[in-house]
């Protein structure tokens, strides 16, 4: 089979690389309108950093895995077309700030209608509002001219930083489609692709709307757990309870489970906030304001946690960080990725810049230009310095903030860092990954999240 994927981003690239890797009989072409991105996929420096990704791309690129800007030809030749384009929060017009911006997905549908010649299976890989398949179907069928289209929903559940592991060994693959004989046949074709490496009992099939809604619901539930434990972290700080101990104690209840209970500076990433906002908007659209308010509180709590952290830094540093050097360790939204979209670090840095702090930032994978873009600063702004390592960033600092849980931050020589800082030397572990007792023995005024 010939497979085409429109969108060579964090999802399209790794997912298609895995399909090509596991299904050598299929040819997979990933296309994008962004030429620089396609060039990077064809180079040694891939545009997405993911442990294990280089190896599988190198093993298959040029054999049955291709990256190209020739969108039309790839669509024309494919039997199955994945749409894996971005679906950001709308910034204009009706629903601005909440609804999903579906212009890219609609452009894909129209492009497919325009250029393809025979029958096609079109797969929604992007995360979409429930019932989007209906619009895609309308666009394709209005322009069908005898061609037949089957729309499937196959949302992606990979997390960044563990994308390859998640794709290799998914908890489940979800495929939704029409419950007609033709729809079921299309579902089976996609089931067969995944069955090359995923046990069949982990391939779930549903109707289209359940599949679309399950993706938004999964992200909302995951984010809700983080907001719940972060809410408790504030109470821990007021009561001398320890949030890690509370999380462990509740997580051993098999009904609650231990995962996704790590208190932090707040969740980031391109999807949790956008998908919950989308869910909130949908609930309002369908006349369910109470349901909308319930899910919106997950985002409100996340905003509270990010600002609470910045406020705590300022109040601890004697209520002023003006002209003080504050070292920021970690800028990515989580470890093992170069992605900074909606990273909590952006909000915390902005709050501190507002207080006139001088920031020296180090992240092992995020380039300086990206940080400047995220902080909306020009190249020559002297309120931030981007450093090549943690020691340079922390030298002469009044405080160190750990904002991403990169493993290397656990291995640093904190005595060396302490010796080069102003006293009292403050350290705020925004990820609860450091040994606060050991840091206090060195002399740091160290605090974590949710630790009284
Ligand atoms: P991304 O921004 O990294 O990539 C999207 C790509 O689509 C871009 O390179 C863009 O140039 C391309 N594109 C847009 N319109 C196009 C068009 N008309 N023709 C060709 N290319 C076009 O986005 P992403 O992170 O890969 O996310 C894609 C979708 O997957 C989103 O709906 C997202 O919610 C969902 N998702 C993302 C993740 C994740 O971890 N990032 C996980 C699960 C699901
Ligand atoms: C998340 C989901 O985990 C994926 O299943 C989903 O496919 C994806 O969103 C998506 O739709 O885009 P991702 O955002 O890549 O994946 O990463 P997560 O591991 O979920 O982390 C999200 C944020 O929550 C990070 O900032 C992370 O640091 C934070 N987090 C996570 C916590 O603060 N505490 C936790 O216990 C877990």
Automatic annotation (TrEMBL):
Swiss-Prot/TrEMBL catalytic activity: UDP-alpha-D-glucose + 2 NAD(+) + H2O = UDP-alpha-D-glucuronate + 2 NADH + 3 H(+)
Top-tier EC class: oxidoreductase
Positions bound to NAD(+): 7-12, 32, 37, 85-89, 126-127, 160, 271-274, 341
Transmembrane region(s): none
GO annotation, biological process: glycosaminoglycan biosynthetic process; UDP-glucuronate biosynthetic process
Record-annotated active site: 271
NCBIfam families noted in UniProt: NDP-sugDHase
Known role: Catalyzes the conversion of UDP-glucose into UDP-glucuronate, one of the precursors of teichuronic acid.
Name of the molecule in the record: UDP-glucose 6-dehydrogenase
Organism: Coraliomargarita sinensis
